[in-house]
Amino acid sequence: MKNGTAKDGFPEAAMSSFFASRHMPCAECGASVAAEETHTCDPERVLEFRLFHLRDSMSAFDDDLRGYLESAEGRFEQWLAERDRPPP
Amino acid sequence: MADAKQIVRRLIEEPWTGNMDVIDELIGSGYIGYDPSAPEPISGPDGARTQIQQYIDGFPNGRITVDDQIAEGDKVASRWTARGTQTGEVAGIAPTGKEVTVSGLTISRLEDGKVVEEWTTWDTLGMLVQLGAIPAPAQA
User: What is the four-CA torsion angle of A45, A49, A50, A52, rounded to 10 degrees?
Assistant: First the structure.
């Protein structure tokens, strides 16, 4: 929505201000940052935040890999790898 | 009234540091709590425990700090700040990993050294905005 007056008569700028929060989580690391605060991400926190969002993929990794290895493509890849394995 | 302030401070802060026993210790059996974010008044120590536990489940590392208190008669007014990272579900919102900071006000009425009635208002909307459940101004 652009600045102006909403259909119900409330100025939209006022609505935006109403829904603003003094604290917002940093998009990179998730830390709560006050509006007046100068924030620098802690690299460890950035890593933790990214890993948190990957937690479902990480926990599903074993099942996904097993499914792939049992698929036609996965079985062919295994066969190919076995064929091309250098002799001991 | 220093004792009353201390009782209320402990009740607000200590459940978040793992001491849920403080609820039975400091809440009277006839307790009623009013919170606009709860559809019905919160009844008794069990009701208070359930109400607090749902937020602790959502923000296991959360902490509440009482910033200021005023006491008069049998009532204590407390201004507090809560901060925590959402790693559990809250109000149907899946874990986001985001840290939120919200403030609130609680007026507590005491009888015989226990809290028997409470009126709380807190920044529920701010929590929802910070968790992304309601669009922030830049996204609106």
Answer: 130
DSSP-based three-state secondary structure for B40? coil
- Region B2-130: CATH code: 3.10.450.50
* Spatial contact of B113 and A1, defined as CB atoms under 8 Å apart: no
Interchain CB contact of A24 with B (< 8 Å): yes
Q: What confidence tens digit (pLDDT) does each residue in A16-68 have? A: 556 678 999 999 999 999 999 999 999 999 999 999 999 988 889 989 999 99
Each domain of chain B, given as residue ranges in start order, spans 2-130
- CA B131, B122, B32, B10 dihedral sign is positive
Of A16, A23, A30, the CB nearest to B137: A16
**Residue A4 Cα distances to A12, A18, B116, B136, angstroms:** 6, 15, 48, 18
pLDDT tens digits along B80-123: 999 999 999 998 999 999 999 999 999 999 999 999 999 999 99
Comparing C-alpha atoms, which of B97, B99, B104 is closest to residue B84?
A: B99
Residue B127, classified by CB atoms within 10 Å of its CB into exposed (0-12), middle (13-18) or buried (19+), is buried
HSE-up of B88 (CA within 13 Å, CB side)?
11
From the list B95, B98, B137, the residue facing A25 with the nearest CB is B98
